[in-house]
Amino acid sequence: MSGDGVNGGTGEGTRTDTGAGVGTGEAETGTAARLQKLFEGHRLTPTQRRIAHCMVRRAADAPFLSSVELAELAGVSQPSVTRFAVALGFDGYPALRRHLREVAPAGKPGDTGSYNEYQQAVHAEIDNLRHLAAAFADPSPVIEAGRLLAASRPLPVLGLRAATAQAAGFTYFARKVHPDVRLLDEGGTMLTDRIDAAVHAGATALLCFALPRHPREVVDALAYAREAGLTTATVADSAFAPVAHHTDLLLPAPVGTGLAFDTACAPMLLGRVLLEAMCDALPDAQARLEEFDAQAVARGLFVE
């Protein structure tokens, strides 16, 4: 299998089982946060970003992986791993691994206990939500994004392939409080036309949902949107995703990779949090919601 959102191809969606059982979530979240801090501020090549992304996704195991194992997991060459460590300021990969072991919390990596693969996938998603909760300790990026989205009239929302559902879900609810939300869920030559139309209508920002495997069209569309003058905010699976360089405000939310197809509970929840932040920035949001509820009752829209 090699389609988008499939764990088994050679792209960003390559299967990397988290091996996270009960009791490993907090430790893995802490290690992932330390890895993110370690990588921040370094100008990494696309190959090196791929290695960094892999290490964050395998945070619990990262301090114990050999350079050969890490290279295989990331789909790169072993010398690339060595160059990656040097780019971070270490003498080589052994020095990087020693550093990770010194700062890693105690505990055996990959301790899955007696849980089957389906249970492990659920626990891995719980860990992803814990990681997202920890990121919300600083709510300023989400608050900033909410203000950007609320102020853009219209508001284009981009999501292709695996991310289409996330973009459509956000758009469905956003239309209840925002006067003009435009879903961009189809690629091709019409995509840039629709971005142009939004800009000409007065749009100032674009929200993008970008999930693995990352379509080239999404990267190109974000680059085009910025050239057209839009401020781009992107929900992505990692701060090292290919869309990072074309995004003004990146909001990471990890995806689960323990099943044949990626699971995206954290990106979905982040989308709902963005909706809340956008509502807080729209003075008439509550009135619009109450108006909709009154109309729904009058029309018998929902079954009690």
UniProtKB/TrEMBL annotation:
Residues 31-107 form the HTH rpiR-type domain. GO terms for molecular function: carbohydrate derivative binding; DNA binding; DNA-binding transcription factor activity. Signal peptide: none annotated. It comes from the Bacteria. PROSITE patterns: HTH_RPIR (PS51071). GO terms for biological process: carbohydrate derivative metabolic process. InterPro entries: Homeodomain-like_sf (IPR009057), HTH_RpiR (IPR000281), RpiR-like (IPR047640), SIS_dom_sf (IPR046348), WH-like_DNA-bd_sf (IPR036388). Residues 1-12 have a biased composition (Gly residues). Residues 1-28 are annotated as: Disordered. This is Transcriptional regulator.
